[in-house]
Amino acid sequence: xxxxxxxxxxxxxxxxxxxxxxxxxxxxxxxxxxxxxxxxxxxxxxxxxxxxxxxxxxxxxxxxxxxxxxxxxxxxxxxxxxxxxxxxxxxxxxxxxxxxxxxxxxxxxxxxxxxxxxxxxxxxxxxxxxxxxxxxxxxxxxxxxxxxxxxxxxxxxxxxxxxxxxxxxxxxxxxxxxxxxxxxxxxxxxxxxxxxxxxxxxxxxxxxxxxxxxxxxxxxxxxxxxxxxxxxxxxxxxxxxxxxxxxxxxxxxxxxxxxxxxxxxxxxxxxxxxxxxxxxxxxxxxxxxxxxxxxxxxxxxxxxxxxxxxxxxxxxxxxxx
Length: 321
What we know:
Mean pLDDT: 91
Order of helices and strands: HEHEHEHEHHHHHHHHEHEHEH
Oligomer: single chain
Shape: globular
CATH topology of the largest domain: Rossmann fold
Low-confidence stretches: 1-5
CATH superfamily of the largest domain: Vaccinia Virus protein VP39
Number of helices: 15
């Protein structure tokens, strides 16, 4: 934003650029523009190429637009990365040479109390990345106890999910849960004292509710498939994840594209005929350097994975090998 409130240090900027191998004449898409840090790194490497930067958050779109205003090769669009194919079609763009996803919540979203993402400040319980649709307060008011418990367990890996869900349901019968402070107090009260001493008990539950409000895992699944479909031969897809649910999905999807064959392990020869569609760029997930870990706390849980789409003739060679 113009007042500088949208502060966002791009995580592993150099590593992401290496994974994308940006060509000056290539076409690239940043599916999570945020404050424009990664987008600017791509744009400054382009000459005759093009960059499309997408974000669902209108604050991010404004900030990225301002940051990229000096790069005529960059176009900033508000939208969800799961809809990237429709966005590219609307812009008249076919295949692209590289796509980057920087997942999770941005520093600005966490640091702006009014957005309702953080349990560290008392604010309206919102959590919407797009600033539209159902808020976290509305979600908590509507969910059955069993579904709320499932969300806390599956999306937050919260072992006290049942106790927290019961506490929330009991509390909302008395009055609506409208602020982050009210929710944080309920969560803390539902968790045993020993668990509160280990780690802030709100972190996992707030993550789970945020994922549910924004449909993040559905967005990621659809976005990965859409991104891979639009990659040109030799194009690269790089994804930064920040928790195990995201990383597991990215790892499994990348492995499937790189494996190809789906025959049973005990089958002596391949009979399915499916060839690898990609090759790994990162054999193992890349993590932040010690220097970045000191400078940017958001990088601590980050993992970077990347794959490159194979040309048709390469698919046969990879399969033969």
